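Input (structure):
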């Protein structure tokens, strides 16, 4: 993981909080170590859930947890103690043929505290609710994943969230469309009620 992520883990630990994050393939050392542990060992706990509530889509999830404290290298000692392997088997209904097509995905997560498989799974679901609501919009509408900013990128992420909150507070339900309107007419953005009073109160615009 990038050093900024490790620093976030340290801040969470030092303030009495705990993180749960997904480990992706762009963090190869940690990802490979977790993959090897999950492949070689019997899970400490497991749970399964099925979601049939979505039209044309059914998802079966298996969550398996593993104790990884002290096994991921000195950099992560005291920061990561548990891992989860989540396997999603999803059936998508083909509206043309009426048949169901299958996809399978495996994801890895780590946590600073030990959790049961059921609690791990619930926390991950809540995380994706936030991801869809906030981070996904920042990625798609604000092109955050394409940003080349390397100096204090966290500051700019907060500015994007600040802008997103202003848009939502003013009733925007289509962020991309609202950004397009504002690009055509900057006065539209400056006319949002409470924009400058909120910014001044938080030490922002002056």
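Output (sequence):
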């Amino acid at each position: 993981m990038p050093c900024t992520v490790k620093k976030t883990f340290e801040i969470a630990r030092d303030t009495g909080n705990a993180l749960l994050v997904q480990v992706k393939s762009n963090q190869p050392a940690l990802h490979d170590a977790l993959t090897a542990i999950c492949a070689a060992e019997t899970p400490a706990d497991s749970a399964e859930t099925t979601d049939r509530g979505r039209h044309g889509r059914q998802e079966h999830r298996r969550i398996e947890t593993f104790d990884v404290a002290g096994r991921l290298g000195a950099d992560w000692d005291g920061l990561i103690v548990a891992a989860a392997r989540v396997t999603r088997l999803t059936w998508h209904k083909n509206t043309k043929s009426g048949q169901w097509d299958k996809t399978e995905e495996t994801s890895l997560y780590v946590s600073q505290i030990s959790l049961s498989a059921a609690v791990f799974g619930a926390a991950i679901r809540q995380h994706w609710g936030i991801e869809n609501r906030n981070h996904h919009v920042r990625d798609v509408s604000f092109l955050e994943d394409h940003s080349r900013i390397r100096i204090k990128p966290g500051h700019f992420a907060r500015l994007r969230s600040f802008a997103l909150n202003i848009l939502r507070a003013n009733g925007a339900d289509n962020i991309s469309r609202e950004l397009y309107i504002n690009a055509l007419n900057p006065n539209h953005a400056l006319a949002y009620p409470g924009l400058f009073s909120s910014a001044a109160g938080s030490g922002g615009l002056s």
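Notes: Residues 155-201 form one domain. The chain is about 45% helix and 25% strand.
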